[in-house]
Fold this sequence. Notes:
Blueprint: H1 5-22, H2 29-39, H3 58-65, H4 68-77, H5 91-94, H6 96-100, E1 102-109, E2 114-115, E3 120-126, E4 131-136, E5 141-145, E6 150-153, E7 161-163, E8 169-171, E9 177-180, E10 186-192, E11 201-202, H7 208-214
Parallel strand pairs: 1-2
Antiparallel strand pairs: 1-3, 3-10, 4-9, 4-11, 5-8, 5-10, 6-7, 6-9
Fe (ii) ion (FE2) is lined by residues 137, 141, 171, 177, 200.
Amino acid sequence: MQKTVAEAALQKLVAEIKTYVSGLKGPGIASVLAGMDKWASEPSGPIKPRTLPACAHLDAALVAMGKPSLAKAIAEAQPYLHWVSYDAYPREDIGAAFADNHAFASIIGEGCPIEAVDFDLGLFIIAPRLFYRDHHHAAPELYAPLTGPHGWRFKPGDPLVWKEADVPVWNNPWEPHATMTGDIPFLAIFCWTKDTSQPAKIIPSPDWPTLENAS
Ligand SMILES: [Fe+2]
């Protein structure tokens, strides 16, 4: 059957993501690629375009990221992506600024254009100069940031470590992590390789007000 423009754009994006992730080194990369091999077939699930205010930062991120073939694939798939905010956190715990200024779009996952079970891969965008508070979850997680630098820490209260674009971050189950976005929007490929139905939880840290006032 003839592919629609939307299906072709999403398939191209998945192929570009796979090429990009294949070029990364580090823990977890192999399990992400194994999941993509297992699930990434032709898009046959629902394509329900949906946007959020954070998507206004996408163009700036695409300009900043370089990597022209991946950027082009994201731009061409963007009209068909289903962007949502992560709603498992109580708003007062995650903070209004983050709650209102991030978005993610799953491409491979349950109910996604490419159907998968207990695997979730897509794009994640956060506005500049925002702190994504300390949190953790059962799912092992890859972030492959396409822009940078952004600040990271892996223990509440620790100082931030700034990592450039294209330096992947792998979080083992229940490992704490937090992200401070830099001056350009945070755009990343994310993947939860299993235990995707268990929600993430916030880990309070007394230095949030200092970090958030500085950003
Ligand atoms: Fe996470």
